């Protein structure tokens, strides 16, 4: 049995879970989100607890059991607490600004890079070099953070670029003088 799939999910106060024919909708104080239902997995909501059950014991059913339990857990956590990723811009003259639904990056190119944020994602800056991406969808928050990091990934010699706040950059030695 799936260790993850068999754990029941507690529903916090203020969160409403609705099981439909093709999706499970979750509404909470931070917003609403839904996840798809797989035909091998069923849901039971009772007493502020959601249980995810599977129909059989095949390999694919076990995999879908754990996957869909985790997806539903992330939806519930997203609408109650939210998810965020923090990026840090490192380099002389590098800075980041948020203008409405656009993130403007000055990261050493001859022009500023404008990045349009998708719906459901918010961004704010802390100083000139930290950017916090937040939203209710864990997958979308991570994808937007990865796309912003791809604009100027950190380089190994001076460490300049855009990196996650908890990321460690492996540094390389530069050229050594020849004699």
The CATH topology name of the largest domain reads Outer Surface Protein A, domain 3
Number of domains: 2
What structural class do the secondary elements suggest?
Answer: alpha+beta
On the 0-100 scale, what is the average pLDDT? 92
> Helical region count?
2
How is the main sheet built? 4 strands, antiparallel
CATH top level label of the largest domain: Alpha Beta
Q: What is the helix content?
A: 10-25%
Distance between the termini: 65 Å
Question: What's the helix-strand series?
Answer: EEEEEEHEEEEEEHE
Oligomer category: single chain
Q: What is Rg?
A: 21 Å
Taking strands numbered 1, 2, ... along the chain, how are they ordered across the largest sheet?
A: 11-12-7-13
What's the CATH architecture name of the largest domain? Alpha-Beta Complex
Report strand %: 35-45%
Pfam family, one: Ribosomal_L6
Protein name: Large ribosomal subunit protein uL6
GO molecular function: rRNA binding; structural constituent of ribosome
Keywords: Ribonucleoprotein, Ribosomal protein, RNA-binding, rRNA-binding
Summarize the structure.
The protein is of the alpha+beta class and 179 residues long. It has 2 helices and 13 strands, in the order E-E-E-E-E-E-H-E-E-E-E-E-E-H-E. It is elongated, with a radius of gyration of 21 Å.
Structure description:
The chain has two domains: 72 residues, Alpha-Beta Complex (Outer Surface Protein A, domain 3), CATH 3.90.930.12; 82 residues, Outer Surface Protein A, domain 3. A hairpin with a 6-residue loop joins strand 9 and strand 10. 20% of the residues lie in helices and 38% in strands. The protein has 179 residues and is α+β, with helices and mostly antiparallel strands. One of its GO terms (cellular component) is cytosolic large ribosomal subunit. GO terms for molecular function: rRNA binding; structural constituent of ribosome.
